[in-house]
Amino acid sequence: MQSSYALLADCIVVLHFFYVFFAVGGEIVIIVGYCLKWSWIRNLVFRIIHLTSVVLVAVDASIGVLCPLTVWEYKLRQLAGQTVEKNISFIARLVRMIIFYDLPSWVFTLMYISFGCLVILTFIFILPRFHREKA
Predict the structure, then answer these.
(1) Of 99, 92, 93, 97, whose CA–CA distance to 67 is shortest?
(2) Measured between alpha carbons, how far is 80 from 128 in angstroms, rounded to an integer?
(3) Per-residue pLDDT tens digits of the chain, which is 135 residues long
(4) What is this structure's pTM?
(5) Of 19, 50, 74, 96, whose CB is crowded by the most CB atoms within 10 A?
């Protein structure tokens, strides 16, 4: 049973990586796409999902709520008899090295809120398309 918890924790950390990749990569793609005049970066559904995903993180950080994915991973690791720093799979260690850093929590809060403000400004200044263009 413990190995099932460990596998679920590994899946959570990979999901967390994709969430971060979508948030950061999405912003980069929107800005680059604007410069290259890619029309699809104005897709309303994409932009709302992107904005929401980033603003949720910024709001959680500003009110002191830990990321639910991190909490879930930690609980699953405890159930698996693991610690986050030891006894985890290679993939989990690799992904954790990419998305987690040993910095004071205020640094992350500042980064999340700043990035959230950037995404909001991008949403305002690079407007999504609110109607379908006729072919």
Answers:
(1) 99
(2) 44
(3) 778 999 999 999 999 999 999 999 999 999 999 999 999 999 999 999 999 999 999 999 999 998 899 899 989 988 998 876 667 776 777 787 787 778 888 898 999 999 999 999 999 999 999 876 665
(4) 0.85
(5) 50
Domain annotation covers residue 133: no
In the chain, what's the furthest Cα-to-Cα distance?
58
What residue type is assigned to position 31 of the chain? Answer: I
Closest CA relative to residue 48, chosen from 105, 135, 130, 109? 130
Q: Please count the structural domains in the chain.
A: 1
Helix, strand, coil shares of the chain as percentages rounded to 5? 75, 0, 25
